[in-house]
Design a protein that fits this description.
about 5% strand, two-stranded antiparallel sheet, mainly alpha, about 350 residues
Length: about 350
Amino acid sequence: MSLAPSSGSRGQIVVQPAYFTSSAFVDPAREDVSLLIQCFTEQYERLRPPQPFTLFKDTWVSQGWTWVHFKIFDARSREAFLKVMMRIFTEHMGATETPLKRVAALFGLYTFLNTQPSMSMPKLHSVSHVEVTSDLYDAIMCIPDTLNTEFLERLRPHAIYVLSGLVGLFQILPHSKVCPMNPREVPRELVVEEVGNGSGKKRGRLSKREKKKKARDSLASLSKWLDRTKQTYEAGAGSETSGTITRHVLLSQRPVATRSNYRTCKSELWAELGKDEAVALRRASDAVVRRMRKMDEVAAAEGLEVGGEGGDRTGLGRVERAADEVGGGRGGLLSLLEGAGLFPVFSHDV
């Protein structure tokens, strides 16, 4: 539903005319009109009343249609509302409908037009004509001729009387083949309810609450995966190391394949560097050290500690020492796996 300030006075909020030509209004309105017609036809078939129009008025009142004209008060929006409602009533007067339903729709259109408030304060906008195509007009004028059975004959005088009151109000447009109605068809605007896809994801950026929830779900999923893949094994027979230890499968096994692949890639890199090996490694090592120092400063400002769990074997200190070892047959940061930056140096294998 689209809202906009009223053109009549400041500060009022009214429904725009486009709402009444959209599926948000047209589809429910069609259902209401169909229900009205259905209720009248069922009661007529059951009661066979001597005064059919009186029965229709009782049905009109019992379903709350007496309040329909107080749905909207703004003149522009009311114009669209009235035209769409009359158009829905005339949809049930075509030759494809049963004679009883066509009469019920005719009664509905007549009642809808003649119950427009004429004396109200403030004065409500009203319409004085009904737009119909030429072929629909011909079908409407033939309605009394279809009431030629014993079951429907008591409807005939009422239909003739109602048509005599409407005949001067019809604004006849060209044939429906050229689509002369405005809008061409209703609903003109289709309102699509937002539905999630198969994965339940919504379009657009995530809100802060959704990001937090996604992070918590990811952490919970990771914890469950770690619990499922952990292993328990015997640590050894020594007095200090005996007993069982529970670790993740990736920590309990040495990454032989990964280490071998890393060394292969490192050898290829050194082969490409050639004579400029020391200069290039020094420049890269200095850039890494600067970035890690920046990270350490940010972490310290946040009250956090980065890489200090292993003492001298981890953290910024070891990276700085390893960076200073570039040259002389050592690869600096590329030799961390071989013990670069440790005191004493465990291996000189580069």
